[in-house]
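Hi U.,

Before I forget, here's the chain from the pilot set. I'm dumping it here mostly so it's searchable later in email.
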Amino acid sequence: MIASISRGDRTRGVLAYVYGPGDTDEHTHQHTVAGFEELLPDPGLATNPEQALDQLAKILDLRVVQAGKRSPKEHVWHCSLRAAPEDRHLSDAEWEQVARRVLAASGIAPAGDPDGCRWVVVRHADDHVHIVATTVRADLTHARLHRDWHRVMTELSSIEKDFGLRQVDRSPSGRRTSPRRATRAELHKAKRLGKPEPSRQTLRSAVRESLAGAVTEEEFLARLADHGVRVKIHRLPSGDARGYSFALPGERKANGEPLWFPGTQLGPDLTLPKIRARLHAGATPTIVAVTGAADAHHKADHAAERALHVITSLTANETDERTATAISAGLGEILDVLPQVHFGATGRQLRQAAKAYGQAAYVHDRAADQQLRALRGAARTLLDGGPALGSGKDADATAMVLSTLVLLVIAAYRWHEAHGHRQQANATRAAADQLRSTYLTVSAKPLANLTLHGERLPPAVRNQHAQAVHQALPPDLAARVLAEPGWSALAATLAQAAAQGQLPVDVLRDAFSAREIAAAESASNVLTWRIRRNANLPTTSAVVQPTQRKPARAATPQTPRPATAPMPPAHRPRR
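Structure:
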């Protein structure tokens, strides 16, 4: 739940807005939820709304008038409360409870205080309410509103827990990195125009995708043009750029002018200084040229695996926090690149994962170290590898890298959760859920091929590989792996590795040494993909399947016909 608190000096003006139609007729079913006393005029339900507004304003302003010159200049306290889009709709009675707790926390109307200020709660949408109050108490003193915003934020965190609502990160790091949400007017406009999302969100994704893996500012601008994004450069008197604004073609304001969004309104990581800091961080170059999408995905998987090993070994000192920030930032770039090299349903799912992860921006100027450069290099490699076709080697490599990325995102979630970064934790958890769903879709066919091959292995061979699992893995993990549905696919992979002269025990130990398997939904599948990558095994579609031959029919004895026997008369050709 988010809150916006403001002060003013026109009680009736604020009431006219909250009971009125809104800027774009977005207010509906306006009515009073509660007030400092029960019998208050309700302009939303009155037959003469203007008269009711006048009456309500006079009632709320009574103590202000009585205080005269002692009343504060800005005597109106206005607080809007909005639930998250995924939250359930609260009833009027529940909103009243929320409002009373907020009023008590702010100092407007402390619980049990008979001299509290006058207030009213107005609802004109399913997901939010407005509190309008005057700040002169019944004893004609001023309400104690020092640090009211901080007290309200603290109370909202408790309210979210008590009502089972989404918990918003109100820590300094969360406020610093949280992107600005689309306004209600923007949401209304997108719905009216039949668009899936507001322009702000579309632009945010396009700018991040254009920036992911970019090496120079010129390349970034060129990729923006490829995405169809217009760019306006704001310059200082010296001629140097001081900022960017972005717009979508055809998007205009009510006066017909283009709808420009400065980078700071898209996300705190998309201002010109942050963009340049990211580019300045550089990217570890690909030493060997990639030979296609599968090769690029393999290299990205290696980079993600190394980052996973690093982030799971971090502690709580300042250096480690900077490293975790770097990994989080680089991971975001890989997620922004993946939708650009995958199409169809897979591309759409990956874009949703990137958007979920992007709900918490990451500050790149504090993250310019080797971890960020390595992951930016992996993002660049994916771009250089070109589109993935979704079959054969591409399908295997995609499933492989997604398997690792799921674990890396989960590790990032655990880091942020442990350090109280609620905004980032919520974003990474949502991204992990979306990535896991995508992985299950992409890996279904390759794993089915391997499972079929593993089930057809001779029992003696399966037993040998099961013994290798017991020798290479801890007892509890070995038992888990052998009990999972993915065991047959792992057995087939071990059989392939053995056929190439590699010892199953050795490849299992090598795969397990990468750590962070316990968090996986299927430890056997993680081991399968790691072994296939490390051992450079052929694509799953090339697995040789035992042929199923039909039983031969018994031959019917026939008397051989003499080679010189004449053709029967009935079959002689006519002349």
